[in-house]
């Protein structure tokens, strides 16, 4: 077995980790790294965002959302037309962290074993030896994920949900942090395999880059003239720092009424007449996790209903399916979600009545 | 994850009647029409007593049925709502034509041009009836036509409110309007049965609206909630208790503190075709309406007589007009019987009838000539009553000369000869005179020798202390009015008013063989202090009499002397010299008070003042003196203070709430209470918080729409709002215990602590709220500031919610009952329900 190896160089060469063998410091069920304090947390987050923003002009919201997903231990789906910087965002985020990065260009002939890895017979040791696939990295960039065949796509499924790879009956743990950033082009759908619902559901959030505004575009032309700004990016946080940040995020407090609010958002999508498919319970979990990350990035140790509401579009829009008639009426998933949120009552303690009881239950449940 | 769509419950609550509505589409119009018909027919029941008898009820019911079921038929063929209502009007016109204008119509139901004069005639007849007659009126064609039309319109109104406008609850106002009329006119109000039937019909209307609501429009607030039944029961109990207790506390509107309420009843003031019936109502009027003034040269108190009642048969006595034998009034009026008295007293009286409206002319007895009258008048030779033809006494001024023999007890005592020369009708003993009347007459007057002694015996008996003058006890005892059975009740209960005394004396006199009749008119009244100059007489003192002086007294016939009035009613009128027990001179110089007119020296014991005083409102207020004069001032002041308090209530409530919030009992409550105060401030100044707004979003909206630019004059307010928002967020959504766990310590506060941090506690918060309010006030318009101070929406809105709760709870209770009874229909269609609703659910939410 190859020893556990952490590489700092990223991208071109397949840098493979045998996380399944090594007792990784940060896999899910192990002990957590110590939580990071407010000051260092804020500083680290600020460093990451600043760096990303130097590369991608005028997309601070997308950058912040990407960081949110990273800290919430989710996966990100970037969907937009070609040439707006989807891949650049993913690569920049990966570069700012001192960790392993793999990029997989999805094509129709890509095989599942290319993603997960394959067991090869070693002539010298006369044993089968596991050659890890491209998924063995802290950050995996899946470019044009909808171009791969369904079975290759689904090879990613287990990796994304379980943070582990199973080949020939043997499971191999993946490193922490582990994040898949997939890009997808919604325009050229010919000859593609659109992601099935089940797989879309595994992405914590979907963002659309959108076109930059005028100033940003001019600036982009200026700065990107000679060299790729990516070249100047050097890591600003280590992987262990990121792990500590995720622990901090996990410890953000969620009050009972925020939980109720989150659940009522989900129920409202399921009861909405405009939707054929509402949000799943898993998506509620992910929504709350993302909300915790936002709260932490905002410098709070508790989640507000605002956090949940702000993230609802990014987290839920790609999971819900509009009803036929709603599509005909010109609705989009985002507009439906906005409508639901604008009607949903926010739980607030009635005046004069303390929220002690609810809060006490909330802390007990945690 | 399989999509769980439309979890049955919420959907059921949202539109539960869908399948039932479809299944019952055919029955709905008919059920509703039946309900409306029952309600309106029930309300019409109460008109019995306003209209006499029941003959009018059948045309009325026909009208209601025809209109109601025309509406139902049109609706069942799914006509346009406007068309349905128009059809109702057409049906109403048709059925009225069929009933009342058949002769001038085509095919009995289509009115023609010739119908209009007929209609005009009937409407005029009805308006005459309303103006001149008193309840119960005889059901003539005019009034019945109007009643039918009104009932038909009521059906259309109730239907329009309940069905196309989908407001079944307000449809009750139509029914209430019908019930109001008898409630005001009839002394016994609308009546239990009519009320019960009307209410049952109204409940049926409500129930039909719930059971068959066509598209769930009415199901808004019918979601089940726990404790609903309890709330409904509580609401009902409170309403019931209020209904029972309030009338005890409120004195009512016809007597007591606010007698002005009786002006609402215009019928009691008019004196109608049957003054006998009006008389009780007139006497009970607390204010003097129907005021008559007269000036006379008579030294004795003057009775003004309108009409006489001489036929004592039947349930209800009334004047007999003797239309056939009436004589036009153009010359001298001849009494028609010989008067043998030596000395005749001639009187000249100038009368101004004022607002008194009656076809009968009030004149002193016995009139000889009348001058100055407008319109045509006739007189009855038998009774000398003067009646207008197509004219009334309203605004008439006339001069009457009258002549009475100068009577004395001796003269009357001599008159014992057999009666001749007058119609038999005055002496006829009515059939079925109750035994008590016969025995009383026998006991009281049987032993007396002459007619005069008999009459005096009867008068003495009636004026004795056994009898009490009371306007109220006949009403409560149920024998108000006149008639032989009423008379029997009066003799038994020994309490009543002039009608009873007069009819008792008249009937008993006939039993004893003395011809008698009852004169109806006015007792002498009071001096006004003014004088009226009458040609040839000089200045005469003016008297006034109004409804409170309405009176009835018996006239007995003595051969050779003519009709002689007596006064059996204690405390009313004046006992004439000849009828007084002794020959003591009567006191006639103190006409200011009726009580004073009774001769003190009369051996007849007067009723105790305590019993009679409350019955005579005029006397009551006079005797109480200055103590009573203070009352209006006290009441007025109390009223003004009460009104001011009432007007200031929202302000006071708001101020109380604020001071309570800014001085919390527990320090950890300071922040949420201050936040509530900020929300209420926002509500007061026009930016209420919405349910779907988070504290942060509301604070942002608050700051942008109510405060000026940050950094400007409102900087303090901005800081206070920001601080309160984050503090409230931490309190509401943060870790219990406040300060955040030490391990994480993400206590990075986004707000700047401008107005004092949490350390300052309540002080800083109060100062912050004050700063916010000052900023709001300086930014708001004048009207907004005024509203926020005196009618703060945060208070009025809450009040509205409180007031709405019982109503919506009642609505939900009705809905629940309806659903329970419609339960059999539901399961059958239940399978369809979810898919059908999923289809239907997309339609409304498009935007």
Automatic annotation (TrEMBL), chain A:
**Which parts of the chain span the membrane according to its record?**
none
The protein's matches in Pfam families, at most eight in alphabetical order, are given as: AAA_3, AAA_lid_2
Q: Could you tell me which residue ranges the ATPase AAA-3 domain spans?
A: 75-204
Occurrences of domain ChlI/MoxR AAA lid (ranges): 267-338
Residue ranges for the region (Disordered) are 343-366
Q: What is the protein name for this chain?
A: MoxR-like ATPase
State the organism named in the record.
Arthrobacter liuii
Q: Which gene encodes it?
A: moxR
UniProtKB/TrEMBL annotation, chain B:
Q: Report keywords, A-Z.
A: Membrane, Transmembrane, Transmembrane helix
Q: Where are the stretches annotated Disordered?
A: 1-22, 585-623, 817-847
Q: Where is the Transglutaminase-like domain?
A: 490-570
Record-annotated membrane-spanning stretches: 27-50, 56-74, 81-101, 137-158, 165-185, 191-212, 232-253
Query: What spans are recorded as compositionally biased (Basic and acidic residues)?
Result: 1-20
> The organism sits in which domain of life?
Bacteria
The UniProt regions of compositional bias labelled Low complexity, in chain numbering, are 828-841
Record-linked InterPro entries: Bact_TGase-like, Papain-like_cys_pep_sf, TgpA-like_C, TgpA_N, Transglutaminase-like
Q: Which residues form a coiled coil?
A: none
Q: Name one Pfam family in it.
A: Transglut_core
Q: Which PANTHER family match?
A: PROTEIN-GLUTAMINE GAMMA-GLUTAMYLTRANSFERASE (PTHR42736)
- Its name, as the record gives it, is Transglutaminase
| Native organism | Arthrobacter liuii
What is the phylogenetic placement of the source species in the record? Bacteria, Bacillati, Actinomycetota, Actinomycetes, Micrococcales
């Amino acid at each position: 077995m190859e020893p556990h190896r952490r590489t700092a160089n990223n991208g071109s060469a397949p840098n493979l980790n045998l996380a399944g063998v090594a007792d990784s410091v940060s896999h899910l069920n192990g002990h957590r790294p110590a939580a990071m304090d407010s000051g260092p947390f804020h500083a680290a987050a600020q460093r990451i965002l600043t760096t990303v923003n130097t590369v991608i002009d005028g997309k601070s919201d997308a950058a912040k959302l990407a960081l949110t997903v990273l800290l919430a231990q989710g996966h990100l789906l970037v969907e937009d037309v070609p040439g707006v910087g989807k891949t650049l965002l993913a690569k920049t985020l990966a570069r700012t962290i001192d960790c392993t990065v793999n990029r997989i260009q999805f094509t129709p002939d890509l095989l599942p074993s290319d993603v997960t890895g394959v067991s090869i017979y070693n002539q010298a040791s006369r044993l089968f030896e596991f050659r890890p696939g491209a998924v063995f990295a802290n950050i995996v960039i899946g470019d044009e994920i909808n171009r791969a065949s369904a079975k290759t796509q689904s090879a990613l499924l287990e990796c994304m949900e379980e943070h582990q790879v199973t080949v020939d009956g043997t499971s191999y743990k993946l490193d922490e942090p582990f994040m898949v950033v997939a890009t997808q082009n919604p325009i050229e759908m010919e000859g593609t395999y659109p992601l099935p619902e089940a797989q879309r559901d595994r992405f914590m959030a979907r963002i659309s880059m959108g076109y930059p505004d005028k100033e940003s575009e001019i600036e982009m032309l200026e700065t990107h003239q000679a060299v790729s700004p990516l070249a100047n990016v050097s890591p600003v946080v280590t992987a262990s720092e990121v792990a500590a940040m995720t622990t901090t995020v996990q410890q953000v407090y969620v009050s009972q009424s925020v939980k109720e609010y989150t659940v009522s958002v989900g129920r409202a999508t399921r009861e909405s007449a405009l939707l054929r498919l509402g949000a799943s319970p898993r998506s509620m979990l992910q929504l709350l996790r993302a909300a915790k990350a936002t709260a932490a990035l905002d410098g709070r140790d508790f989640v507000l209903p605002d956090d949940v509401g702000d993230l609802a579009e990014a987290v839920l829009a790609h999971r819900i399916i509009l009803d036929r008639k709603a599509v005909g009426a010109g609705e989009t998933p985002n507009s439906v979600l906005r409508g639901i949120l604008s009607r949903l009552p926010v739980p607030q303690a009635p005046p004069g009545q303390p929220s002690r009881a609810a809060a006490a239950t909330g802390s007990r449940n945690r | 994850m399989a999509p769980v769509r439309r979890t049955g419950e919420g959907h059921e609550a949202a539109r539960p009647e869908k399948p039932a509505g479809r299944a019952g589409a055919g029955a709905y119009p008919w059920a509703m029409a039946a309900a409306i018909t029952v309600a309106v027919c029930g309300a019409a029941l109460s008109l019995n007593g306003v209209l006499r008898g029941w003959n009018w009820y059948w045309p009325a019911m026909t009208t209601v049925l025809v209109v109601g079921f025309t509406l139902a038929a049109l609706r069942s063929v799914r006509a346009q709502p406007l068309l349905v209502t128009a059809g109702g009007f057409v049906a109403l016109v048709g059925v009225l034509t069929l009933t009342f204008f058949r002769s001038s119509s085509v095919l009995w139901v289509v009115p023609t041009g010739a119908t209009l004069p007929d209609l005009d005639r009937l409407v005029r007849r009805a308006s005459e009836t309303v103006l001149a007659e008193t309840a119960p009126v005889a059901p003539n064609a005019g009034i019945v036509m109007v009643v039918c039309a009104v009932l038909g319109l009521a059906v259309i109104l109730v239907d329009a409110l309940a069905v196309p406008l989908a407001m079944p609850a307000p449809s009750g106002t139509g029914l209430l309007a019908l019930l109001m009329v008898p409630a005001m006119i009839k002394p016994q109000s609308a009546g239990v049965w009519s009320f019960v039937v009307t209410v049952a019909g109204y409940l049926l209307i409500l129930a039909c609206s719930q059971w068959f609501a066509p598209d769930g429009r009415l199901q808004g607030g019918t979601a089940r909630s726990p404790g609903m039944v309890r709330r409904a029961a509580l609401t009902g109990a409170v309403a019931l208790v209020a209904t029972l207790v309030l009338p005890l506390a409120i004195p009512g509107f016809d007597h007591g503190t606010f007698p002005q309420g009786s002006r609402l009843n215009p019928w009691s003031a008019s004196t109608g075709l049957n003054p006998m019936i009006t008389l009780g109502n007139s006497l009970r009027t607390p204010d003097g309406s129907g005021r008559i003034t007269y000036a006379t040269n008579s030294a004795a108190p003057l009775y003004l007589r309108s009409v006489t009642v001489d036929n004592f048969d039947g349930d209800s006595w009334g004047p007999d007009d003797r239309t056939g034998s009436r004589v036009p009034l153009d010359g001298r009026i001849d009494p028609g019987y010989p008067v043998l008295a030596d000395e005749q007293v001639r009187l000249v009286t100038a009368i101004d009838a004022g607002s008194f409206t009656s076809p009968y002319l009030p004149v002193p007895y016995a009139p000889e000539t009348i001058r100055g009258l407008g319109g045509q008048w006739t007189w009855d030779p038998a009774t000398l009553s003067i009646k207008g033809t197509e004219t009334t006494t309203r605004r008439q001024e006339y001069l009457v000369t009258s002549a009475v023999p100068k009577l004395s007890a001796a003269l009357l005592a001599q008159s014992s000869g057999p009666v001749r020369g007058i119609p038999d009708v005055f002496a006829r003993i009515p059939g079925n005179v109750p035994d008590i009347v016969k025995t009383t007459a026998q006991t009281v007057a049987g032993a007396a020798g002459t007619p005069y002694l008999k009459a005096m015996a009867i008068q003495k008996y009636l004026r004795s202390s056994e009898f009490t003058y009371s306007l109220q006890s006949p009403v409560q005892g149920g024998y108000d009015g006149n008639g032989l059975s009423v008379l029997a009740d009066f003799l038994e209960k020994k309490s009543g008013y002039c009608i009873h005394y007069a009819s008792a004396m008249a009937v008993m006199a006939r039993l004893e063989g003395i011809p008698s009749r009852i004169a109806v008119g006015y007792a002498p009244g009071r001096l006004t202090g003014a004088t009226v100059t009458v040609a040839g007489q000089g200045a005469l003192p003016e008297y006034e009499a109004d409804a409170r002086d309405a009176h009835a007294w018996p006239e007995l016939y003595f051969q050779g002397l003519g009709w002689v009035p007596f006064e059996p009613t204690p405390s009313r009128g004046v006992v004439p010299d000849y009828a007084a027990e002794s020959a003591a001179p009567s006191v006639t110089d103190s006409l200011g008070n009726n009580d004073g007119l009774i001769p003190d020296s009369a051996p007849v014991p007067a009723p105790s003042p305590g019993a009679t005083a409350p019955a005579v409102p005029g006397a009551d207020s006079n005797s109480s003196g200055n103590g009573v004069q203070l009352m209006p001032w006290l009441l007025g002041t109390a009223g003004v203070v009460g009104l001011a308090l009432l007007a200031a209530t929202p302000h006071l409530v708001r101020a109380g709430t604020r001071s309570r919030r800014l001085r919390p009992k527990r320090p950890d409550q300071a922040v949420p209470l201050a936040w509530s105060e900020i929300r209420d401030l926002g509500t007061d100044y026009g930016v209420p918080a919405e349910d779907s707004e988070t504290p942060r979003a509301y604070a942002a909206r608050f700051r942008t729409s109510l405060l000026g630019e940050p950094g400007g004059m409102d900087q303090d307010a901005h800081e206070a709002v920001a601080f309160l928002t984050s503090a409230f967020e931490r309190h509401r959504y943060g870790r219990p215990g406040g300060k955040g766990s030490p391990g994480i310590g993400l206590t990075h506060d986004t707000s700047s602590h401008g107005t004092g941090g949490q350390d300052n506690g309540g002080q800083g918060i109060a100062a912050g709220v004050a700063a916010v309010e000052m900023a709001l006030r300086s930014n708001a318009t004048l009207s907004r500031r005024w509203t926020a101070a005196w009618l703060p929406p945060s208070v009025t809105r809450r009040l509205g919610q409180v007031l709405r709760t019982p109503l919506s709870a009642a609505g939900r209770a009705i809905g629940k009952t309806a659903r329970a009874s419609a339960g059999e229909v539901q399961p059958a269609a239940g399978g369809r329900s979810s898919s059908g609703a999923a289809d239907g659910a997309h339609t409304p939410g498009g935007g």
